[in-house]
Amino acid sequence: MKANSSHAVGEESHGRRPNDSSRRWLVLAGFMGVTLAVSATGAFVPAAGKWYASLRKPSWTPPGAIFGPVWTLLYLMMATAAWRVWNQRGSRNVRCALRLYGLQLALNAAWTPLFFGLQSPALGLAGIFLLNLALWATLRAFRQHSLLAGLLLVPYALWVAFATILNFRLWQLNRF
Q1: How far is 76 from 80, CA to CA, in rounded Å?
Q2: I need a labelling partner for 84 at 20 to 30 A (CA). Which of 50, 107, 143, 148 fits?
């Protein structure tokens, strides 16, 4: 009888293919790459720095330097949450949850061109409203598959809620 050479001596497969662990890490890297790519949408929008600087802003507007680090952390948490749901792929409705994730990610990517590219707080507000709806649906769907995945989206949902209020105030203060 020939020995199974696909497993190290004493290694149990637990029903997984031998390369399943490395595949999972590659999928995590994929989720990170796709999610972080959303942040690159700003690079394709014409510079709107002068326009944004000219807007009247509420006193509680965060300094510009905070947005990069906050969004980077949020994107990493989002990708990790999606990966945790993907790891439940044998469960019911995982595809639906990941489609919702894709939808909210697309809406997230659309906000920058709407707000900055078109220099329109009104269109930005419409986009971020839709983002909120898709995000809360995603959070709920993720929570059904992994409590941690749901919890990982909470800071993002709170930040987007804050951004929605800020966007609303910018629209109010700058209706020309």
Answers
A1: 6
A2: 107
Q: How far apart are CA 69 and CA 30, in angstroms?
A: 21
Which of 43-57, 78-92, 114-128 shows the lowest per-residue confidence on average (mean pLDDT)? 43-57
Cα 78 from Cα 150, distance rounded (Å):
9
The model carries a pTM of 0.83
**Using 50, 70 and 90 to split pLDDT, how confident is the model at 39?**
confident
Burial profile 133-157: b = 16 or more Cβ within 10 angstroms, e = fewer: ebbbbbbebbbbbbeebbebbeebb
Domain ranges of the chain: 20-173
Q: Does domain 20-173 have CATH number 3.40.50.1010?
A: no
State the average pLDDT for the chain.
Answer: 87
Contact criterion met (CB below 8 Å) for 145 and 97? yes
Higher pLDDT, 137 or 19: 137
- pLDDT confidence tier of residue 28, bands split at 50, 70 and 90: confident
Q: Whole-angstrom Cα distance, residue 121 to residue 170?
A: 7
DSSP states of 8-41 as a string?
A: -TT---TT--TTHHHHHHHHHHHHHHHHHHHHGG
Residue 114 has which token pair? 């709407």
- Calculate helix-pair angle for 121-145, 94-112, nearest 10 degrees: 160
